[in-house]
Amino acid sequence: MGFLTNLINGISLGSVYAIIALGYTMVYGIAKMLNFAHGDVIMVGGYVCFFAMGSLGLPPLVGVLLAVIACTCLGIVVERLAYKPLREAPSLAVLITAIGVSYFLQNSALLLWGADPKAFASVVPFPSITLFNGQLTISSVTIATVLAAAIIMVALTLFTTKTKMGKAMRACSEDKGAAELMGINVNSTISMVFAIGSGLAAIAGVLLCSAYPTLVPTTGSMPGIKAFTAAVLGGIGSIPGAALGGVLLGVIEIFAKAYIGTQLADAIVFAVLIVVLLIRPAGLLGKEIREKV
Amino acid sequence: MSMLKIEDLNVYYGSIHAVKGISFEVEEGEIVTLIGANGAGKSTTLNTVAGLLKPRSGFIEFEGESLVGVPAHKMVSKGIALCPEGRRIFQDMTVRENLEMGAFTRSDRESLEMRTRVYESFPRLKERRTQAGGTLSGGEQQMLAMGRALMSKPKLMMLDEPSMGLAPILVKEIFDIIKELNDQGTTILLVEQNASMALSIADRAYVLETGRVSMSGNANDLLHDKRVREAYLGG
Predict the structure, then answer these.
(1) How many domains, chain A?
(2) ipTM
(3) pTM score of the predicted model
(4) Cβ contact (<8 Å) for B152 and A182?
(5) Which residue in A71, A65, A40 sits closest to A52, CA to CA?
(6) Does residue A286 lie within any of the structural domains?
(7) Of A85, A149, A269, B11, which has the fewest Cβ atoms less than 10 A away?
């Protein structure tokens, strides 16, 4: 049963990584930038939900909704103020700006909400499910996380293949100039992608804090880096790749913790990334970049 | 009144003066071609009209309205479409999705209606509608790029080097289609290096040389002009 428990926990943690990785990969796809502040949006989502539930006494679902709204707005504002002026700048400048935004968000949280850890109350207040005469216990958060990730994946797939805006997003990811010639407003499409990615980060944030209920201003940074790793593992720019990479990474991490050692787990996770990239430089589902000669 | 009127247009790439005071006009219903060697400023001119580049100075007027400062994504709804150099179709999207993008500013009903018409003009696109754009041959990609530009029901269609990289037989086919589109009422502004082909279907032509208009006139006259023949038609 230990194996099954670990597998379920791994898939659940991986689902959180997958939700965060989707934001990374979509933003990379359209803006060709690595938004290293993405992880910190998770933390902001966590705090908004924490205060909505704790201080205002709102029901969990309203807390989650507020977190999503706050992070969506945050994503749009950050893109407009920090990244949009750098649209024509070298990618290194954008990367360093993203790291700057990350520190800005962490330190703003420190200033606003203090350094002491907050005990996050689960947003899924249902009892755990016990199976096989009590040998296997699955918490309601675990189930909610996996379900949320699955629903998000299906919704995003439908969005990008069936809707006009979703297709416009793909068109912008491929060729901004050509998309512009079609009458697509590239700037507002990029805004939209930041909004979606940040909204998803809020959902990931409340689910993560529900499973691992300690909230500090740096809560988002490690999951952010792991999710980035997941996006690269799956093939950055690819939506199914982000989901696959996320789940794989979560499972590997939990198994490494269970069977090898807690302290080595992170090292193993990143080692897997290195090995995969040596064999498949574009990631598991990434497209090989065709070199024109 | 001319449909498109360009006056004293100056465009720079950084410090390079690519278009040096070009003026020309396109009347409704015409095929006008800009011919000239590589680097003469032909594509720069088209990209500036399309809003992808900003002119340093000069006027661009379309149906009596200034286009200077209008962003590229607003041109389609004014009735201008550019079929860009190198086609630039969306490689990972299907033929059908590429066409849908062409009608981005149109309603779903109009999009469907135009798709039927584009499939009539380009039956090969209909056959390949579920295929990814990147898997098409060069000629088919050019047809897709033209079909995609048509999807917005443009009044003025600008074509940048439609013959580039195509076999002679395909070039002929593409030019026949351009002529046909014009007969159906679309005004055409064509940029070409293949001067003889361009002059054979155009009404009027402008010869561009290092960013300036060096000659202009009736396409048929230019086709038989000694200087044009020597410089662009291989004697």
Answers:
(1) 1
(2) 0.91
(3) 0.90
(4) yes
(5) A65
(6) no
(7) A85
